[in-house]
Write a structure and sequence with these properties.
homodimer, 3 domains, six-stranded parallel beta sheet, four-stranded parallel beta sheet, 13 helices, DNA-binding, Peripla_BP_I (chains A, B), HTH_LacI (chains A, B), Substrate-binding domain-containing protein (chains A, B), transcription regulation (chains A, B)
Chain lengths: ~325, ~325
Amino acid sequence: MSDQPNRNPTLDDVAVLAGVSTATVSRFLNNPKVVAAATAERIQAAVAQTGYIPNLLAGGLASSKSRMVAVLIPHLTDSIFNDTIQAMAEELANSGTTVMMGLTGITPERTDELIQAAIGRRVDAIISTAPLSSRTAELVKRFPGLFIQIWELPEDPPGIAVGFSHRDAGRDVARFLQSRGYRRPLLVTAQGTRAGMRRDGFVEEWQALGGGDVQETMVDIPSRFGHGRRIFAEMRRLDEQPDVVVCGSDYLAQGVIVEAQAAGLRVPDQLAVVGFGNSSIAGDMRPTITTVDIDGARIAREAIAAIRRHAEGQPPRERSVDVGFRLIARESA
Amino acid sequence: MSDQPNRNPTLDDVAVLAGVSTATVSRFLNNPKVVAAATAERIQAAVAQTGYIPNLLAGGLASSKSRMVAVLIPHLTDSIFNDTIQAMAEELANSGTTVMMGLTGITPERTDELIQAAIGRRVDAIISTAPLSSRTAELVKRFPGLFIQIWELPEDPPGIAVGFSHRDAGRDVARFLQSRGYRRPLLVTAQGTRAGMRRDGFVEEWQALGGGDVQETMVDIPSRFGHGRRIFAEMRRLDEQPDVVVCGSDYLAQGVIVEAQAAGLRVPDQLAVVGFGNSSIAGDMRPTITTVDIDGARIAREAIAAIRRHAEGQPPRERSVDVGFRLIARESA
DNA sequence: CTGAAAGCGCTTACAG
DNA sequence: CTGAAAGCGCTTACAG
């Protein structure tokens, strides 16, 4: 019921109503303690009365901190990152930070566009799960905020990285499967560096332990539940039938299990399956899925802690934070 | 390799280098055609040379259009909205619009906070899947942009709505199941208005067609794959065993199917299952899941078309866009 | 087709 | 603890 229904109240309106300067209102809003108690009360009342909502565009421009963070993920459906991103988004919202969501798909061009957009919005940080092309790396150099790569630990990150060793994860899975007596693994590898490193780690360790040849098949990105059908059909045409299928995601593993069961195979007795990521479905599937747990909430916390330190002008504690991983042996292998 | 490596180039830098005013550069950037060809070329070169990335905070403040849209969804994991949101995010990115992602969870307070944040960022539109509390509705009144509710068609939307009739969807499912000869449905209903409307529609139609009692059980929001286990266990304790379980999402349906199969039941012969949403898993599950298809891409397109019209100052074509739905009979029922 | 200039709504040294 | 004032980097009537 204001006099000017078509205009959002501004700092000025609040200041006039409270009988102080805009500077004081601004201070109160950003750091209530620096203002005298009596003044604070008057401002508070004025804010309530006007229904003032600060213009964060103006605030960001003036302070050159946007309180906005870009999160770049490949896609939404059946994504292995969803739990991490969910934890991230909740944490960020709690600290008053807005999340700009970028879906990179699988083309580097889209990634570059999104990074440009993020820079244009002067985000405080970019959190990325995307691979870094050399062109993208060039762009990132011009980014004044904090660039955080998650779910991986590159040699020489342009900003910081919070992740784990995919190679070691691959090794652990190989060791585990050999110890369980499996002999003929089929590796389902998605394109992309990370999947490749897990593959390399797996093959290395498998053969170091005296395992024989490792069969492999590629799967499109994003690897999802529905791919299980094709993978299984392909597998059936192999000369030598594997005794365990190692998948790059739990969704894919779930798909393979469903197909195997539909074909009358018992999992894990006749065919074992391993997933990756410990998504929520992994523990609820029948049989429950043996997988590698990545602590998404921890990745989120570490990333956000780094953003906070960066905002306070402190240098990062370390350029690479290794959050590790944990093989979870369940029923499927 | 600039002289001032620590400063992002501004419009001014570009203007000086191109030998024109900032106004002209701005015009070129926003609408290249209004600038003379020769001038355009010089500006282009200057932009390239400086590596200029426009500050969208400043642009948004000056023009009072942010080219940013807030998308509010309950959560990310196993979400029935993911395909819609994915289509939306891609379309928006194509038109140079940034997506602010808000995870509302299930508390109205969080929704209100996110709407405040969106208003604070002066987003051009808010696209929401969240239920509208009366307090939220109050907030929305002060939002100068376009408020779009999707996946539902409220009586009297504060902005516009793009969705379908949940009641009719419930009715259609009831009719379909009766025609297939099912007699003892178990309805798994999530909290929330939309699920409630489907429930009402189902029961109405079921009984209008001479069906008997309808058994029901509630499930927590978000309804997800893992809930299938509990639902199935509960079902087994019922005095009268249902012949079909009607679920509020395909993920939940998938969970019930997995549990039923683990218990040795054949789906659909011994227990049929119906999902909702036609998520990508529905067509790939074994058996494939009978479900209700919602055209998420169409919802996305309609929403974005409305935003575009709004940006051009045109009034919305209609306050409610009914995109309908389509029952897809597959193997599971 | 282009420029000079005001203005968008904040923040933040600086001074008191 | 508070205010006056400059400035953040754009856009956009207005005039020519």
